[in-house]
Amino acid sequence: MRQVHDRLAIETRGQGLTEITGPLQAWLGGQKVSNGLLTLYLRHTSASLLIQENADPDVQRDLEAFLAKLVPEDPALYRHTAEGPDDMPAHIKAALTQTHLGIPLQDGRLALGTWQGVYLFEHRHAAHRREIALHLIGA
Amino acid sequence: MRQVHDRLAIETRGQGLTEITGPLQAWLGGQKVSNGLLTLYLRHTSASLLIQENADPDVQRDLEAFLAKLVPEDPALYRHTAEGPDDMPAHIKAALTQTHLGIPLQDGRLALGTWQGVYLFEHRHAAHRREIALHLIGA
Amino acid sequence: MRQVHDRLAIETRGQGLTEITGPLQAWLGGQKVSNGLLTLYLRHTSASLLIQENADPDVQRDLEAFLAKLVPEDPALYRHTAEGPDDMPAHIKAALTQTHLGIPLQDGRLALGTWQGVYLFEHRHAAHRREIALHLIGA
Fold first, then answer.
1. Distance in angstroms (rounded) separating the CA atoms of residues B80 and A57
2. How many whole angstroms separate alpha carbon B79 and alpha carbon B88?
3. Mean pLDDT score of chain A
4. pLDDT at residue number C79
5. What is the ipTM of this complex?
6. Which of C21, C53, C114 to mutate to test binding with chain A, by most A CBs within 10 Å of its CB?
7. Longest dimension (CA), chain A
8. How far is C6 from C40, CA to CA, in rounded Å?
9. Are B48 and B94 in contact (CB under 8 A)?
10. Nearest to residue B121, comparing CAs of B6, B13, B28, B26?
11. What is the pLDDT of residue B73?
């Protein structure tokens, strides 16, 4: 049994989903573990991690539109407004989605379903550099 | 330290919660690991995993009703409508709940609280065969 | 490779967030594992676990206010009312946040970002004693 720790930096282009399945598979290809558990932990509270459909891009747009309506970027609704009108909604959206994901790794492949992709979900309007702590344990 | 990979198939009967605590405990009984960590990873994006109360069935009905109202099955609200009026709401409900769960296993029993059950939450109206990737690590 | 199982009891003071980063770090300091994966599993369905910003207390108040408005404590909305008007909303809030968290541990420190804290989120009005099952695996 072995374990590996690493950090993966992702540049987002502002609000929306960035697929990271490719970078994750590339990273896994360089490890000496082909069966085990991969944990992704996002070191931020105004973005999140998400498993979503990777086929129709409209799914991502609908999800973003739903959350934009559910958590309006209206400063009148929040006390925490010093970091901009999109910051408190970003924290709430992060609380409603995921800060960490655990995905089994089998024979060198993540156990993703046919239509699943792994996404970093940026909730701020500005582009950000986001850091994911990776932990892999297995053999 | 050992690890086990497997797949658990669950037949849902359409929208709603299906308890899977029993099948999980049965599966665990056949493994040579009694202390460790069980990870469940659902290989779909229109259903999800959930820990919920297993005592009063009204809790499940209230949760379903709340989500039905929060995420209406109204095609006018979404771009992604080709797979039916319940598909995009299913993706959103999945994003708001969980695709994976990690539960400690101690002395052969999951660390569930007295009133907790593990559920597969089907968000589509039609019955589906859903697949959960299982990963168990421990001793 | 080693693993540790334990239980952490947290006394909440009623509805709201209780930071548990300190107790977790203290617990970790007593273990003979400095690199690995920590899993927190909450043994209740009317409270939850959350990673949130630990800088501005207004973030926590805004998050609580958002959820209070999203999931009203109005018995007319729910069937499950026997345990009080705050019980069913508590189950729903728990379903929308997290029952478990997985956080990598590196060189004896959790991989938390600069502004992140680990919180127990109490959804009931009364103070409760909540129990978290801890699992640590690593070296």
1. 9
2. 9
3. 97
4. 97
5. 0.97
6. C53
7. 53
8. 10
9. yes
10. B13
11. 98
pTM of the complete model: 0.98
Q: Which of B60, B61, B84 is nearest to B74 (CA)?
A: B84
Distances (CA, A) of C36 to A55, B41, B51: 34, 20, 25
> Distance of CA C47 to CAs A52, A93, B30, C52, C124, Å?
26, 18, 32, 15, 7
As a whole number of angstroms, the distance between CA C65 and CA C67 comes to 6
Residues in chain B: 139
Q: Which residues face C53 on adjacent strands?
A: C116
> Which residue on chain A is closest to B88 by alpha carbon?
A59
- Helix (H, G, I), strand (E, B), or coil: what is residue C41? strand
Please list the pLDDT of chain C residue by residue as tens digits (139 residues).
999 999 999 999 999 999 999 999 999 999 999 999 999 999 999 999 999 999 999 999 999 999 999 999 999 999 999 999 999 999 999 999 999 999 999 999 999 999 999 999 999 999 999 999 999 999 9
Q: Helices A87-96 and C57-70 sit at what angle, rounded to 10 degrees?
A: 60
Query: CA-nearest residue of chain C to A5?
Result: C106
Q: Cα separation of A82 and C132, whole Å?
A: 34
Q: Which two tokens stand for residue A13?
A: 């282009």
Give the mean pLDDT of B98-114. 97
Answer whether B131's CB lies under 8 Å from B32's CB. Answer: no
User: Quick one: which of A97, A55, C69, C48 has its CA closest to B92?
Assistant: A97
Give the other-Cβ count within 10 Å of C111's Cβ.
24
**If pLDDT is split at 50, 70 and 90, which confidence band does B9 have?**
very high
pLDDT tens across A31-45, in order?
999 999 999 999 999
Of A128, A105, A98, A116, the closest CA to residue A9 belongs to A128
Contact (Cβ atoms closer than 8 angstroms) between residue C3 and residue B35: yes
Model confidence pLDDT, tens digit, residues A9-66: 999 999 999 999 999 999 999 999 999 999 999 999 999 999 999 999 999 999 999 9
Handedness of CA C7, C13, C17, C20 (dihedral sign): negative
Is the CB of residue B6 less than 8 Å away from at least one CB of chain A?
Answer: no
Cα separation of C94 and C128, whole Å?
Answer: 15
Please name the chains neighbouring A, where neighbouring means 3+ C-beta pairs under 8 angstroms.
Answer: B, C
Cβ of A76: how many Cβ atoms within 10 Å?
7
Residue of B nearest to C88 (CA): B59
